[in-house]
């Protein structure tokens, strides 16, 4: 597939893009000929340097990409994050929820350290974005940066372009895609509502061709509910030039999810991936749990704006995970979770996707009755 436009643009072998917060997954996708994309939302600049250096060693000269939180507006400008600034009514409601479920408190001897470590990972500020950018620019294997929350600020976009780095962005609406095109982005990821994490409300089948038509000739990657070769064939049929996968890697042996979390995913059905504001304050698709369900009950408070909802649920997540409270455990995952039924490997997932893609394309003339046309 070397003649594919996206492959030529980025110097990769197959138009399969894989997003993950796990460096092992990112490096394996890249080594297999696709382009792994490392999510940086939870890394300090020092930690990011360690992760990127490790990936560099694993992939040799192969290009890879990173995903950054680069919104045009930052709600925390001039306002350092602190647990003390949380609304006490929200804190009390969440504490009662976990206490009533019998989920133990964090040990007093460790609580402050654990919470401060969590806070250090939340860096949705202009200052942190610029610090992360400095780290990125020190790694020449990074050939694309994807903005997860809109077009990046102009000064960041210009610096990336000056270093020969392609810039992309996620989009769930045609209106947003047009803004990305106007901003001068190089590639767009049209993410249907089936996807994990922050998504819009338009399904992939409708969104992909709408975005393709709206931003041509900018190449579009299809995202949202992709984990099989037939999905890939559908994406190309609808005008995409590559696929962007995220949730499908959760079930691989390279994934850094705990064994308990993987088992929950293997048992889940497609409808168990629900949209919730409970994690970040913005709509995001996650695995249904008693924690996500509690936030939509009549007695629940309104979720806080990003990033304060992240700050609020930091202690809850630590308590839930440390207690292995399976009914309350959750993670971002798309509706493709219904087909993640057992452990595989990154390379096997890619091989299965490509084999089914080729078979599907080869059988298309027969399936449509156009084999002799």
From TrEMBL:
Alphabetical keyword list: Dioxygenase, Flavoprotein, FMN, Oxidoreductase
Gene3D superfamilies: Aldolase class I
Tree of life domain: Bacteria
GO molecular function, one term: dioxygenase activity
Flavoprotein recorded as keyword: yes
InterPro entries: Aldolase_TIM, NMO
A Pfam family it matches: NMO
The protein's name in its UniProt record: NAD(P)H-dependent flavin oxidoreductase YrpB (Nitropropane dioxygenase family)
């Amino acid at each position: 597939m070397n003649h594919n436009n996206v492959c030529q643009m980025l110097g990769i072998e197959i138009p399969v893009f894989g997003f993950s917060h796990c460096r092992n997954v990112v490096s394996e996708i890249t080594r297999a000929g696709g382009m792994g994309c490392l999510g940086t939302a939870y890394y300090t600049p020092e930690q990011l340097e360690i992760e990127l250096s490790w990936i560099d060693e694993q992939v040799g000269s192969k290009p890879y990409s990173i995903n950054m939180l680069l919104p045009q507006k930052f709600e925390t400008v001039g306002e350092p994050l602190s647990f003390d600034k949380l609304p006490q009514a929200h804190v009390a409601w969440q504490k009662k929820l976990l206490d009533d479920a019998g989920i133990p408190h964090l040990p007093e001897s460790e609580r402050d350290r654990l919470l401060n470590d969590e806070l250090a990972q939340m860096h949705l500020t202009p200052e942190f974005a610029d610090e992360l950018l400095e780290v990125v620019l020190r790694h020449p294997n990074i050939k694309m940066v994807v903005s997860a929350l809109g077009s990046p600020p102009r000064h960041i976009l210009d610096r990336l372009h000056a270093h020969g780095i392609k810039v992309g962005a996620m989009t769930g609406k045609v209106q947003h895609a047009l803004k990305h095109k106007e901003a001068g982005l190089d590639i767009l990821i049209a993410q249907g509502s089936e996807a994990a994490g922050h998504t819009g409300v338009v399904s992939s089948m409708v969104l992909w061709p709408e975005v393709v038509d709206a931003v041509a000739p900018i190449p579009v990657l299809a995202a949202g509910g992709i984990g099989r070769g037939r999905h890939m064939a559908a994406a190309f049929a609808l005008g995409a030039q590559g696929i962007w996968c995220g949730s499908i890697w959760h079930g691989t042996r390279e994934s850094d999810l705990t064994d308990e979390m993987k088992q929950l995913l293997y048992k889940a059905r497609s409808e168990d991936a629900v949209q919730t504001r409970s994690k970040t304050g913005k709509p995001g698709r996650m695995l249904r749990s008693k924690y996500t369900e509690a936030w939509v009950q009549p007695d629940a408070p309104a979720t806080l704006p990003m990033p304060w909802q992240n700050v609020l649920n930091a202690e809850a997540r630590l308590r839930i995970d440390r207690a292995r409270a399976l009914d309350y455990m959750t993670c971002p995952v798309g509706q493709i979770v219904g087909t993640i039924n057992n452990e595989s490997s990154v390379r096997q997932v890619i091989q299965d996707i490509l084999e089914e893609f080729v078979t599907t394309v080869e059988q298309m003339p027969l399936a449509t009755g156009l084999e002799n046309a």
